[in-house]
Amino acid sequence: MTMIKPPTRFGLVVLAFAMAMCGPANAQDMGDVRALRAAVASESAQPRAPQVPRVAFLASSSLRGAWLSPDGGRVAWLRDEGRNRTLWVAPMAGGAPRRMLPNTDAEALAWSRDGRWLFLESPRQVFAMAVDGQGGSRAIAKLGGRWARTSLGADPVTPAAILVLESPPVVSRLAKRWRVFRIDTNGKETLIREEGKQIVDVAFDARGRLAFFTRVEETRYTVYRMQGGKATPALRCVDLQRCALLAASADGRTATLLTDVGSDLRRLARLEADDTLTTVHVDPRGSDDLQDVALDVRTQQPVIAGYRTMVGANYGLTPDAQRHVARIEARWPQRNVRIDVGATHWLVHERAATMKGERLHAYDPATGAFRDLLGDPGTFWRDKPAPAIAESTMARKIPFTYRASDGMPIHGYVLVPHGVDPTRAPIVAHVHGGPFAHFGPEFSSVSQMLANRGYVVYEPNFRGSTGFGRSYMRAGKGDFGNGRVQQDIVEGVRFLAAQGIGDANRAGIVGASFGGYSALLGVTFQPELFRVGVAAVPPADLGWVLRWYSRTVDQMAPGIPMSTSMRLLDLDPADPKVSARLRAQSPILHASRLTRPVLLLAGGDDERVPIRSVLHYAAALQSHGKDVTLLVDQAARHSVSDPRTREAYLYLIERMLHRRLGGGAPAAPDAGLRATLAKDLRLRGSNFAD
Question: With respect to CATH, is domain 13-56+388-541+586-688 assigned 3.60.150.10?
């Protein structure tokens, strides 16, 4: 297949860590350092941005998602309007959108292949809605339940049906069976496949016959091929290798899938009739895992490959698609664009790190014409419209790569406040959770608020982060205490400061979940660098939390127990050596050595980091006379959703960093925020004593 040239757009700035231990920088490295400095200088030269209200960063886009019909003629979207979620349908060729439902509990939509039905998926059911005036709208499938049913989406080959996976109870004396059903718009169920092991993916030939399926077998996935009514193994994916089925060919002899079998990066591959793999597309830049693929609805064959770990890029997989993708990329340069393909029109989802939510655009491949579908959908905060954020006031995420002290390239972003001398600006490391996750080219509320308040913000994608291939994800080798992974974060801050980007004498560290754990490590073990730490829902003893969490039903990979995934990622919760090492390097064990102030947020119903572990850490700090502030939302889970708590948390971050690092002062809290603080602020450190 012809490989197209990568799109011309702002790409990764690859840098060398100019430390003596890394050796001298070469000419290319120095050129890349100059490029980073130039990008930072351009950002800092922008007019000083006005202080944007806190709630603007916390607000959510009213647009909950948009789905293109297979024929490309219509687009449907879900939109929150006050307390109601509404359903709209608009013609792609032009014309006003029509509100189909004034209120729905649907969380996702799917079009039937014939485009005459919309399937509304809520936590409890799938509702088939007739959209061509044919009548017959009804609930066709229950979801959830003891024999849990989950939607697999619309059947890609049958005119009007959905696919549903039924899973057995977690605890039962009955034999465990997994079943996949096809359910039509009358609610009629047809059993497609039944297995004694968990089914993960299915793919069909053009006649609607099952051609391939994937099931879990202990610690691996096996892709099976259907031949003469019998299933035979075609591909095995071991040690957390990924192999997600996308579609089968019309004759059912081959299948396309996302996989990293035989490759470090996740790529688009074809499983041939002889069970060999052929690479269809892999990131030409050699850096990113494949994120999404647009299929031709008529042939179920791939048309566009999309990568967006650090810098979004789309690649056409046919000569026609290459021309259209180039036109779309030229229309929205330096944006994170995702493309859905229909028979007559394409749907363009436009995103950016400077914009909340997304904008929708129609593209006509026959004429090359573009049309805005929705404009700015607006944002809501506590069921009311929120203040708009002008993109010109937000900091651009500048992607870069530096070389760590052991020689490994480490990726990340830096956000630079407008109108501020970056050499004199305080710097904050904002660490992502997981740890097996990553910062992408999306809007980050905390990072953008901090940049707006005058801080340089560093978002590290330390080793162990996802999206950069298996080797990068596994490079942490379980060293998630005060070790190599933490050193990546520390060295990234020092690297930026050495380039005149941020004042290392005024550095802080913030994060949630694993990011909160890293923040506690930073103020405990690197107090000479980090003068303040903010930790939301943090595991102060990562080993203990891993042992506790591994017993839950949560899974990193479908069908594979959390404990197994952790073992394969060198964090075996049952290994005494792992537990002992993490314990020896834990913030809780070294509470007495803390010399910097910390702010903690805990959720009373946290299903991942039990509140008792956070309270135990806070009590240990208090017993040693340390400067600790504790905010507790008694009803919150690991992901805090209460808008009052979220606003209180941002206010406390603003105030603490302002007093310790000298960034912008927070706006005074209103009566509602003061009431939340009076109720939920359990410990008041020196920054909140007044």
Answer: no
What is residue 27's predicted lDDT score, i.e. its pLDDT?
44
Per the CB < 8 A criterion, the answer to whether 642 and 636 are in contact is: yes
Under 8 Å between Cβ of 410 and 287 = no
Question: What burial class does residue 392 get, using C-beta atoms within 10 Å of its C-beta: 0-12 exposed, 13-18 middle, 19+ buried?
Answer: exposed
Q: Give CA–CA dist 31/333, Å, rounded.
A: 23
Q: Which two tokens stand for residue 29?
A: 């490295």
Residue 162 has phi, psi (to 5 degrees) of -120, 165
Residue 84: in which H helix or E strand, if any? strand 84-91
Q: Which residues of 639-667 are buried (b: 16+ CB within 10 A; e: fewer)?
A: ebeebbbbbbbbbbbbbbbbebbebbebe
Q: What is the DSSP-derived secondary structure letter of residue 557?
A: B
Dist CA 637 CA 446 (whole Å)? 19
Strand partners, 222: 215, 236
From CA 280, how far away is CA 283, in angstroms rounded?
A: 11
C-alpha torsion 26→32→34→36, nearest 10: -140
Distances (CA, A) of 458 to 408, 429, 439, 511: 18, 5, 11, 12
| Total number of residues shown for the chain | 690
Q: Is 349 helix (H, G, I), strand (E, B) or coil?
A: strand
Q: Are strands 313-316 and 336-341 parallel, antiparallel or unpaired?
A: unpaired
Alpha carbons 180 and 317: distance in angstroms, whole number:
31
Q: Are strands 178-184 and 161-166 parallel, antiparallel or unpaired?
A: antiparallel
Phi and psi at 54, nearest 5°, equal -55, -45
Provide the β-strand partners of residue 184.
161
pLDDT level of residue 29 (50, 70, 90 thresholds): low
Instruction: Note whether 119 and 128 are within 8 A (CB).
Output: yes
Residues 6+ apart with CB under 8 A from 15: 29, 32, 33, 36, 400, 401, 402, 403, 495
Higher-confidence position of 246 and 608: 246
Query: Of 119, 185, 177, nearest to 152 (Cα)?
Result: 119
Per domain, the residue ranges of the chain are 13-56+388-541+586-688
**pLDDT, tens only, 322-374:** 999 999 999 999 999 999 999 999 999 999 999 999 999 999 999 999 999 98
> What does the pLDDT read at residue 30?
56
DSSP letters, 638-663, are SS---HHHHHHHHHHHHHHHHHHH--
Predicted confidence (pLDDT) at residue 554 exceeds the cutoff of 60 = yes
Q: pLDDT tens-digit profile of 152-185?
A: 999 999 999 999 999 999 888 888 999 999 999 9
3-state DSSP of 297-316: CCCCCEEEEEECCCCCEEEE
pLDDT at 32: 78
DSSP states of 251-302: TSS-EEEEE-TTSSS-EEEEE-TTS-EEEEE--TTS-----EEEEPTTT--E
Instruction: Identify the residue with better confidence: 663 or 565.
Output: 663
Amino acid, single-letter form, for residue 604: G
